[in-house]
Design goal:
Length: 282
């Protein structure tokens, strides 16, 4: 299939999923009331939210440079920030394509191997995932009933029904696919030397090696404490970005900082959905 056609189809499919989720979210909303609310909104809180978002993105750009440093490259801040923003824009077209796009953009600008940059992005996303899980754990202890009710109604019950409907009808097929996957993985590892002679597999192994080298960078970080600082700073700004915007309209102006943290976690889970920038799911 033509690459351009394939990307177009992917865009349409994921965009359609996002629109469907938007329809579910807004199907009972009175749009005249919504428009009146937007007209009456206090947009200084929106501007403040954008300020916190900008601070988070600046910090992310610097944190990424810290991860790249052990690879032997020192990209300019402007380059990492530009690449990061390019990635966010790309995510509007296809989900998660921005992670690759920003690596390609920075690689071309600063002459850094893309495979090693992908390794640093894997580290970055892993750290952010663990941070999100830590915040969620804290919420469960402090707001257990609220969190449990949301997870039960919005995630666990629908997920359980979906799993039962899929695996209950075709569990033999899933076992067969798992067996094929494990067998293929075993054969690839066992015969990797012979497979390296094939150009396609050689590129695959080189990519995997580059990613592993990128993952190793976290062990030899030259600015560990600065990395930790930026991680904390990023998530503080994410929290404030999510919280202050609730004061823009009266119906949500009563929400507390704790509510803002709850919205941040749920929004983070929604952003993980395979649609453009969490469209609909968020």
């Amino acid at each position: 299939m033509n690459k351009g056609l394939k990307q177009t189809i992917q865009f349409i499919v994921f965009f359609a999923v996002g629109i469907f989720l938007l329809w579910i979210a807004f199907r009972n909303v009175e749009f005249n009331r919504l428009i009146r609310g937007l007209k009456d909104a206090d947009y200084k809180w929106v501007v403040l939210s954008l300020l916190f978002a900008t601070l988070a993105y600046i910090s992310r750009a610097r944190r990424w440079a810290i991860l790249i440093d052990p690879l032997g490259y020192k990209p300019a801040f402007s380059s990492t920030f530009y690449a990061l923003m390019t990635g966010y824009m790309a995510n509007l077209a296809l989900p998660r394509i921005g992670e690759i796009t920003r690596c390609v953009a920075l690689g071309r600008k600063e002459k850094i191997p893309v495979d090693q940059l992908i390794g640093t992005v894997v580290i970055e996303r892993t750290i952010d995932f663990l941070t999100l899980v830590s915040i969620l754990t804290g919420l469960i202890f402090s707001r257990g009933e609220q969190v449990n009710q949301f997870l039960k109604v919005s995630i666990f019950i629908p997920l359980r029904e979906k799993v039962f409907s899929v695996f209950g009808a075709a569990w033999i097929l899933w076992i067969l696919l798992a067996f094929i996957f494990l067998s293929a993985s075993y054969l690839i590892i066992r015969h990797r030397k012979q497979l390296r002679k094939n150009k396609l597999f050689a590129k695959f192994f080189d990519l995997a090696k580059g990613i592993i080298n990128g993952l190793k960078t976290i062990i030899s970080l030259n600015h560990k404490w600065e990395f930790i600082f930026h991680t904390i700073f990023i998530w503080i700004n994410y929290t404030l970005m999510t919280w202050v915007v609730v004061f823009a309209i009266d119906p949500t102006s009563h929400l507390t900082l704790g509510d803002g943290v709850f919205l941040l976690v749920i929004g983070g889970l929604a952003m993980s959905a395979p649609v453009q920038s969490g469209l609909g799911a968020f």
